[in-house]
Amino acid sequence: MRLIVQIPQDDILIKGLVNNDRYCIETIYKENFKIIKSFIINNKGDLNEAKDVFQEALILLYEKAKNGNLNLTSKLSTYLFAICKNIWLKRLNRNNTYTTEIQEDVTSDLSEQDNIQRSEEEQETNLKFETMDWAMESLGEPCRSLLQAFYIHKKDMREISETFGYTNTDNAKTQKYKCLMRLKKLFFDKIKSR
């Protein structure tokens, strides 16, 4: 049995940006600036312009997130790259240095970076699946069956209370909660120990 447990890294970074969390801002910078810098330098820019464009993109991202207007449909790195690319192309156009010969080496680097990151994320996801399988097996009965009935077979609390012999739905809910807390503890203890 597999349950998906995923920590949305991009969401954490965006919330950190909005809350001026230094670690989150540094992480966004470390994970994204190099590719932006390469793109701008390869397209008639320099390091200072790359810094300016990246800063402007972060401000736009911050304002959208702060106002609740940010709806990410891609990875944060892809979104930031698109913003920076648009800002840079507008600057080139404004300065009459726009060219249709945009160096796409950086785009392929971005794809490569995405592939590596995707591979790492898949490994991490597989590890979480294996850990969840282990935690479910270690959980034992009746908790395992109760959680499967609720989360996998989508049974309501009335059906669960009848099947497992609880006197009412409140008792079934309480037991489900206790089982879920035990499962989370097993899962996160195992993740921390790796």
Automatic annotation (TrEMBL):
Signal sequence interval, chain numbering = none
Q: Which InterPro entries match?
A: RNA_pol_sigma-70-like, RNA_pol_sigma-70_dom, RNA_pol_sigma_r2, RNA_pol_sigma_r3/r4-like, WH-like_DNA-bd_sf
Keyword Transcription regulation on entry: yes
Q: Name one GO biological process term.
A: DNA-templated transcription initiation
Q: Domain of life, per the record?
A: Bacteria
Gene Ontology terms, MF aspect: DNA binding; sigma factor activity
- Which keywords does the record carry? DNA-binding, Sigma factor, Transcription, Transcription regulation
UniProt keyword Transcription regulation, yes or no: yes
**Annotated TM spans:** none
PANTHER family from the UniProt entry = RNA POLYMERASE ECF-TYPE SIGMA FACTO, RNA POLYMERASE SIGMA FACTOR HI_1459-RELATED
Q: Family per UniProt?
A: Belongs to the sigma-70 factor family. ECF subfamily.
- Protein name (database record): Sigma-70 family RNA polymerase sigma factor
